[in-house]
Amino acid sequence: MKSDDAIGDVPTGSVPVVSANDSRVTITGADFAGDLAGELPVVDPATLLPHWTDAPTGQVPIVVAREVAQAIDPWAAIPAPAWREGEADWVAHEGQFDASLLAATATPEDAFKALSVEEEPEVILDTTPRPAPQREFRTRRSLNADPLAHRAARTSARSVSTATITGILLGIVVLGIFALGRVPVMVLITSVFVLAAAEAYAGYRSVGAHPATILGLAAIVTLDVSVYAKGAGQIGAVTVLLLVFGFVWYLFANRPIDVLDGIGATLFVYLWIGVLGSFGVLMIAPRTFSAGHGMTYCLGTLLLTVANDSGALFTGRAFGKRPLNTKLSPNKTIEGTIGGTAISVLVGAVILPLMSPWTLLHGIVFAVVLSVAVPIGDLFESMVKRTLGVKDLGNLLPGHGGMLDRIDGLLFALPTAYYLAHVLRLS
Q1: I need a labelling partner for 244 at 20 to 30 A (CA). Which of 14, 112, 193, 299 fits?
Q2: Count of beta carbons in the 10 Å neighbourhood of residue 163
């Protein structure tokens, strides 16, 4: 092929021939590469990349964050990557990346410590332990906690003379109502227990609990009326209804309430005062005792309870030295308990046989048994008051405190007398 042949000419068909003595292929018009060695560009060693087998130098390209204008598209707010273009980029962004992370001794933890973005604040993880969840309106506490801690117990300003006068007046009123018949006595018993339950609910509210007071008082009234008309079988029905309506009550509460404390306080007061007190109504109900004897048994139970309380009070003040229970009620003494029992037996042997159908034997038996139940009722209320951190649950009765402070022993005496009468076949 000749160098002067035109590109568009028709091929001649001739090819270059390699001679036997020459191992090179000769192309007409071509120059030898060796003749151009002096004209090749020279590579600058400073910009020459190292061989792939060489150790890393530590100099690597880095992405430089460029400021971009805020656009409507949220993705436009992400800075576009850019390579370092000059000495200014290396100096200005020197703290953004540590090239030593590529060393053989670097660890992934070192990378997390070194990486940072100037546009975003540093995120510091809070390693402090999470506090225990707090429950609002909670009255339950640990067994070792002091019930009176951080609470101001109300002081009592009782006077023996004032209490005696109040007791005499109450006795006259109660005897007058018993003379009127069953229905007035039933109204009296229900009213007394409703007032006592209201004081107990108020005590629970004073420590942050949220009992359903209206619902509990309504249940006590319903229970007394039902028991008087239908008998003891209504206790279970009314209790179930109170539990169901209590759930609905707290289900639609306007604010978050500790339901366990709320329903617990509601049911506790109802069972303690309502159910135990309903045995007084059950005793005077027409279906329980024949010939109206239930009224006499109920009045006898009331007299024995008052005798036990009064005897324990005066005997304890005169001779009391050894406390009956220092944790619950340090003012109640063993000597007072013995004196209360003696006065109760005296009333049961002398006064009760004057009322038919009481006998001397029945009067003494009831006096001995109730002398155990009445102090238990007093200690039970003392336990509740100590837990709530109050001295008295009310001040309705001068010299006695609240209504509940006056009938605490009677609440345990009524069911005891009711079942004792059945055991002795007095019904």
Answers
A1: 193
A2: 18
Give the N- to C-terminal CA distance of the chain in Å, as an integer: 145
Q: Tens digit of pLDDT for each residue in 378-424?
A: 999 988 988 888 777 777 777 777 889 889 999 999 999 999 998 98
Alpha-carbon gap, residue 213 to 47, rounded angstroms: 90
Q: For position 138, what pLDDT does the model report?
A: 47
At residue 130's C-alpha, the angle toward residues 127 and 136, to 5°, is 160
Considering only residues 193 and 426, tell me which one the structure prediction assigns the higher pLDDT.
193
Sign of CA dihedral 335, 336, 337, 341: positive
With a threshold of 0.85, does the pTM exceed it? no
Of 69 and 202, which is predicted with more confidence?
202
Q: Are 388 and 203 in contact (CB under 8 A)?
A: yes
Using CA atoms, how far residue 264 sits from 206, 212, 245, 254, 259, in Å, is: 15, 10, 13, 19, 8
Query: What are 74's two structure tokens?
Result: 């949220």
For 63, 115, 118, 142, the CA distances from 122, given in Å and listed in that order, are 20, 11, 9, 43
Amino acid identity at 8: G
- ∠ CA 259-260-261, nearest 5°, is 90
Nearby residues of 238 by Cβ (< 8 Å), 6 or more positions away: 219, 222, 223, 226
